[in-house]
Batch of 4 targets.
Target 1
Amino acid sequence: MNFLRSLLFLTIAASALADEPSVSYYRDVVPVFKRNCNACHRPGKAKGQLELTSFPMLMKGGKHGDTVKPGDAADSRLFQNISGDEPEMPSEGDPLNHDEVAVIRRWIEQGAKDDTPADAGIHKLSSPPTYHALPSVAALAWSPDGSTIAVAGYHEVLLHSADGERITGRLVGFSPSIAALAFSPDGKLLATAGGATSEYGEIQLWDVASQQLVRSIRTSNDTVFGVSFSPDGARVAVGCADKLVRVFAVADGGEVMKCDNHIDWVFATAFSNDGARLVTGSRDRAVKLIDVASGHLIDDVNKARDAVQCLARHPKEDLVVFGDDKGGLRIHKMEPRGGRLAEGDDKENSFLRECERMPGPVHGLAWSPDGRLIGAACTTGEVRLFTAADGQRTATLKGHEGAAFALAFSADSTRVATGGYDGKIRLFGVAKGELIRTFDSVPLTPPPATALQ
């Protein structure tokens, strides 16, 4: 009798399970992880040694062992941690809602199968995107020959003529987000740094003349930032959300250096004039000098004050200016001081001067090609120009609606282009700071007309 009752119970349970909707790992479970879990369980920040950014890493488990037992949600640590009246996870933020917990439970009970498509994470568009509104401009760069302004868009870089009259090219790539742009010293290549949040970082190398993608370099599991070329154009460096600094060979995309001396996101990089050293800036408040050949830390450039958002190198000298999240602008020499100094040292031997503090966090910096001026853009919408030799303000570039994120000087140092929240590109004269022209960063298409009721 007991056997028959048990058999009946199992039959009813199996029938109930079969009646539940089928759950897809890729379509249903992954979005739950992205919304609630990946901020703490990703490469570079894997709490409990558990990563949830891919199926293999999920099934590998963490320091407490297996996370998922296919077919048995009640005995799966993942389900145990997110369910109940007071769930343990997420440790930060709101608990998963009822539907999200139910999705995880059903997926485990149905066998915890992986249906990740072979082309998952490939975001390549078949044609340039259509814009019904102007997107924020996160990055721009002016070509060394002065003919082209490159502007970051969605999934693409738009090439504008230097006078803003026309778009001369649209470089559509994989990354939805483009965080930084840089032309090679000879102007033949354009490098982008970006990626897809919580999925991958990517460097794209474009041939400017043919407007063809030369190479896509995937790295890390999140967006990369602050791309820069070595003076000989043979290498590119990026800062990463996983706290690492990476350098790659342009010729084949191979990683040639990796440094792990930062303890937070790295937003900016710049090579020394001989290409032997790399200066980097991070949210951990540090600016560091790194030996490119070995990846070893040479020295701390600054005394830690505020989170470093961006930096720019003098075009001919080993000087660097960096901006922080409190509006600070400081100029330092890029040189070692005989090794890292003792504990308690103020680490200010390389300091040269400060510029006037900006009224908000600094997100964009540029040094004019003639080395005379420094431009800074901040979240209040102000863009200011300073004389590098004494740090004095020479002009305030006005008219931005919302935050200003990026700026670049023309090759002859007579003009500066700016971009930001309002999606407009503005050209200013450097001598007087006067506005010359304003144009859209992307081509706009009117939205479809709403049908009359």
Note: The chain has two domains: 2-109, 140-440.
Target 2
Amino acid sequence: MKYARTELHLHLDGSLNILWAYKKSLERKAIDENMTFQEFYDILFSINLLEHKESLKKFDITCDCLQYYEDLFEATYLLATQLDDMGIYYAEIRFASQQHCKKGLSQLEALQAATDGAAKAMKERKIKIGIINCLMHKGDSAKENDKENRETIRVTKEMLGKGVVGLDLAGYENNCDLNEYAYLFEIARNEGIPYTIHAGEMGNGENVMKALAMKPQRIGHGVNCIQKDEWVKAVIDAGMTLEVCLSSNTKRDRNYAAHPIRQLIEKGVKVTINSDNMMFSNTNNLQEHYILSMLGVGEKELRQCTLNAIDASFADEATKEYLKERIALLDKE
């Protein structure tokens, strides 16, 4: 698709090449040695799960095969080159460094592995890549993961501008009150770290309002703000950009036609189009654009979503101008 050129919301551990992930999982003894590729495939592509929390267990499998520097390096490199092969100009790949310390890596070493993999891809290809490091929801209180999350902020600050572009909060959104994480984003804000926040994906759209109060540059998903007109208005009034992931938020609770992305675009919300988890959702950015075009979203709107992504990205101004120039060339085709 013509304007499928940006990815702002893409999880590394949910977007691995599935055959590579299977072989690596066997090599690292992350799965039973007798598990077949077909069984592995069925687990990671399963869509008939009872609830979103259950689906997040898939990340435990893929994280277990990404516990060494060389594996994180290779996974990031392979994903970046795959995106370049698809024609993506710019992508922000996110993962949680704290999830990759089971075999002795520090969070800083895990983050370095991902940035090194991205750097190798950028040296060989035209694609521009930024790494986003994720804070994590764990347990029934933000305090249960306080030490790890503070370390995530520290290493993100250390690597900011060295391949790392920002911070996120990921995991099961409904574990506890989102407001419990506000102090972490205050620390990040004081450190000058750009950030996005997963909110309004799982159930109550009021979490979007809580995220807005934490002053992020963007909101991950955010689609459940559609539940109340006043919430949609608040998103628009704040000039907030939503990282919408169509396929990731369908098939379980709604079909494609019932997804609110068209309503959000029509109401004037700044929407971007993203894949979320290319492997788990069996999708990519080109496919997301194609599906939206089949749902009646026009080329003008799809182009604007791409421009929204460039404007809301954590890239520097020179990179943003470069990307807009490349998009302008598409207009002449």
Note: Residues 311 and 320 are 7 Å apart (CA to CA).
Target 3
Amino acid sequence: MNRVENRFIAVISLIYAVGIAGFIIPALRPLFIWLTPYNIAGAFAVAWLFHPKWSVGHVAVLALIGVLGFALEWAGVQTGQIFGSYYYGKTLGPGWNGIPYLIGLNWAAMTFYVSSLLAGRSKHNALLSLGGAAMMTLYDFFLEPVAVRFDFWHWRGPIPMQNYMAWFVASFLFLMLLFSSSKPSHNRVAGTIYFIQLLFFMALFAWIRLF
């Protein structure tokens, strides 16, 4: 299984490396922006293929996190009081009331990746959730300028510190819900996808800052 996992991780790494070039090169950018929703959903699906312990409870809680994440984003856009004042572009695909359906899946996916990485590393759910929330907020720090540049979403003004605080709190609550209600298992592929995506956004973050 490790050999198969290594091959999938290599393929995913190559896809994201090509993706960096695709977003940077103007002629390729429209294609790679169009592929973004498929990439997010595909990475999540691949991570599940290698999950060692499926359970109805675990899947149900992640589905609930997806629904809650979507509801949180809807409330955030409608009120401007949670993350700050922002609105979604077209890159993340179709949605409801201006909120892409994919954003709920992305909350579930990020919670899944981080929980899979941290599973079994401590007996204290709060400690795991705090560490995972820090990882998810770090991810968002590098994601935000990239998201704005490529029409994921847009801020009505500078990116507010409130956004990162809300990301941390929401991530902590979602992870606490997952760790407290089910027993996430270590999933090497899912954990590696977190780091691959983080490096992807770090590379584009650096390019945006330079150019």
Note: The first strand starts at residue 86 and ends at 88.
Target 4
Amino acid sequence: MSQPTAILDALNIDPENEVPLYRQIYDGLRKGILNSQLVPGTRLPPSRTLARELRVGRNTVVAAYEQLMAEGYLDSRVGAGTHVSEIPPDSLLEVGIEERVAKDKTPARNLSKRGITLSTLKRAAPFFEKGAAPAFHSGLPSLELFPHQIWARLLSRRARQPQSRLFDYQLGAGFPALRVAIATYLGAARGVSCGPQNIIVTTGAQGALDLATRMVLDPGDTVWMEDPGYLGARGAFHGADANIVPVPVDAEGMNPKQMPPNTPDPRLIYLTPSHQYPLGVTMSLTRRLSMLKFAHRTGSWILEDDYDSEFRFSGRPLSSLQGMDQSGSVLYMGTLAKTLFPALRIGYLVVPDHLVDSFERALRITGQNPPAIVQATLADFMDEGHFTAHIRRMRSIYAERQEILLEGLDQHLKGYLTPARPEGGMQLAAFLPKHMDDVKLRAYLRRHNMYTAALSPYYMGENAQPGLYVGFAGVPEQKIRAGTERLVALLDAYKE
């Protein structure tokens, strides 16, 4: 086969194809080189000649040649024309070897142990394309009542200010005004002892969990975790190859006294003391002081997850465990996504002074920074009082929605579902009879477009309690009433 014929055979140009013509020429020549149809030293026709043969513009051929030369597939010298490179690029050599290996002998390229663990953990929430989530999806705030117009105005204002702080990489631990706003809020509302310099802004609560886990855990380290407990935290600890020890939860929160003797001391203790996830209990003062004393004595870290404590319906929100800490044992984390809207993807860590620089450097490496313009808009939203006003409004509405849900469960499902009665939050646990399989029940309900979570997967120990995790914050009042009645009908028709 002559060289011109081989070159033309390597090209199959289709003017109707959506792929640009220069890219079709590039792809064809590159493929011919990789499969040795065009061997090293093969001279390519001048761009004008090839353009005439292909009936395309000369600049189209020039663009394809230039791209191939930039990637090392072609050489061009004055007076010698354009040739296939004598020494192909490394990627060409690798591809050539790979294509010659039989399929059944192709070396396996597997995920890492951590990659396999992370990819097999299931915790993603369903995505709903139309309207609000159906009853009774947990973890969702009231999206229809968020002040969208105010947010849009603030975001638009920031977008019209092309400041370098918003459009470059230099954010460090977070947008400075947002760190100030978060520190001010946490000090006043949650009793957190911190300044703006202690705030590390992350991509949501899961970003805070991931960063904290990377920074304080080595593979094999022991983590004490509430049982039942938050699946997202369990996933982060599994991904870190930690030794997770489930610690039973009772009416006062985590209770280490119920653990077997000789349980190893932890490197990290994960707690949701203000509103335990998922049971909703509040850790007693005695238990809080005991945990702080234990962490100080053993040199353990406490990771305090304060995920939705803004929504406490009786009295003021409880002060944080971090605010009681005198030994620098507590890393405090929270999220603004549940308070405002999930797509915000902004969370935070509060870390001791001596760790700020280390966490900030790690943040740059792990790429956990939320977009600067969103951080700046959130800072304005908080500074102008919209954040606290929204919380006050939602606290009242969520309290009403919880009461409607409890009334419906008591009226229609007493004896079948026994709801917990937390003093706040956005969802509640409702317990089923011991013999029931809540995972199968959840699947049945989802087939009928009712989205609850099964309670038993939150447990790691042997005493898993079946139940449903029922969200109410993001469900309008009329949908809660209708949803409760529909839940009754579905349960009446349910057969294991």
Note: Residues 127-131 have pLDDT under 50 and may be disordered.
